[in-house]
Amino acid sequence: MFGSIGMPELIIILVIALIIFGPRKLPELGRSLGKSINEFKKASNELRSTLEDEIRVEEQHDRISTTPAATPPAATPPAADAETVSRTTATTTTTPGTGTHPA
Question: Which one-letter DSSP state was computed for residue 2?
Answer without folding.
Answer: B
